[in-house]
Predict the 3D structure of the following.
Amino acid sequence: MAEPIIPPAIEVTGVTCGYDGNVVLKDISFTVPRGEIFFVIGGSGCGKSTLLRNLIGLNNPMAGKVKFLGQSFTDADLAARRKLLKTFGVLYQGGALWSSLTLRQNVALPMEEHTALSAREIAELTSLKLAQVGLTGFEDYYPSEISGGMKKRAGLARALALDPSIVFLDEPSAGLDPVTSRKLDELVLQVRESFGTTLVVVSHELASIFGIADRVIMLDRAEQGIIAMGPPRELAQGSRDPRVIEFLHRGDRLAAP
Amino acid sequence: MPESVSTAHANASATLAGDVLTVELSGDWSITAGLRPMWATVLAGRQPKRVVVRGNGLGQWDSSLLLFLFETQEWCKITGAYYDAKELPAKVRALLGQMSVSHETSVPFDRSENFFTAVGEATLDVWRKTKVFIGECVLGAVRLVKRPQKFRWADCVEEMQLCGAMALPIVSLVSFLVGVTLAYTGAIVLRQYGGDIYVADLIGLSMVREMGALMTGVVLAGRTGAAFAATLGNMRANEEIDALETLGISAVDFLVLPRLIALAVMMPLLAMYANALGILGGMAVSMNILKIPPSAYWVEMLTIVDLSDILVGTIKGATFGLIVGLAGCLRGIEAERSAAGVGRAATSAVVTAILLIIIADAIYAVIFNILGL
């Protein structure tokens, strides 16, 4: 069989991860093609965030391999790793904006570090990124001076600063009201439309799952692994696993207008 | 013969007929209304083969009733008596069932460790983290020398203001008072020999060589070291340090080096300032209490304090600055992701810094002695 010419955005093979020798997830494998909005779902404590930390290199998996755009990230040397870090952006749960910098400086910093752009060009791009997430007029605010929803939007602007091919979002709707969270979902769709970005979203927000996910994997705590994979509506209707049905059932009713 | 125990509003009375003990529960059972009847008191040493519990006269009840019934049930289980609670309300029986389950399944989670294991692992952990951290700082310093334009000078200057200029009032007060205290203490001894004037030598030498740098170090450990640990600890808890890592920006270059350099530059300056204030404090006491004119004090001091003493104080100051900065940043970066973790980081930053300052001071005393400085 011939190798595919364009490698998928993310390839995860046999990843086992956990903390201090305690395994949380065992032998996780999945592939995310480019341009997909891919959700990692599951109940609290099932290891969604642990998996995310292992994918983005904050923790090293106990076993297995993570590849971005066909290149191995897990066992990359320092230079290769630094190069791969530029291919993805991360929106952390609370935004994780650097509190000593203004929004403008927050978005500009990745560009200052990794590009040869002039200060003028960086300033232009920063304004554009912040405008894309609807934060025009707040460029010179500090993170402590804006609301939780705005912090997440600013975090997304920063994650998009280097025009990455992949963006990870950790519970983007946690702690947001339904309207704000809906707007964030629309922003995610818009990012994909504009740049063809692959988006990996860790979430248990059913409205988002049915609203924007192309495909989901569902993790389970007892199983320590993936118990379902596929488009959310198909899973809600076609799955025979009571855990999947229970999780998605309420959402289906909620999502129906 | 009925045995009845009632406390506050709760009442339990037990009647023995043959081998059957009938317990009548009545009244209001509340966990907050003082003592409840105890099973042992109600039983009063009798040995029934069957215990029947009835709750016909029960009013309001809460967990205290469950505790009593659970005691009863456990006693029956141990002695083999038949426990009959069929006449209790269904709600009570259901709750009691839950209690039995929780009792049987709750095995305490033992977090305790062997003392020696704990100490050994903590030591190894500190060693590992310190090694990595210092190594990263050295690498960061090399990168700084190679590409100084990438260094965050603005942050560094801001930190200099925070840890240097803003610390002037407290450093002034502390070192002035140290000078005053030294003058009084010195005068007690020197006066006996009519050598009041040598107070100037004592203060000049001890401030410049020891106390100036030491006191500044201790003040900055509490003021700046704790602030570094708390700031970086909070950044870790907020995932700000993770965000740096996933963007390929070194947390050491971005956060640690500007702070370290700011402290290493400001500390010797603060220490020299402290020397001056300490000498001034001693001069004030000498003038008012010992009646030594300031000019005589100054001239006497210059006979013993020379440039090598000031050099000693400055070297110590820079070292203590680095110690405070390293301890604060290391503890902050390694902090646990919680409010308690940030608190512990700040505490241990101060303790580590002060401890290392004293140790470094002792080592310097030996080294300077050998060098004849």
In short: DSSP finds nine helices and ten strands in chain A. Residues 15 and 51 of chain A are 9 Å apart (CA to CA).
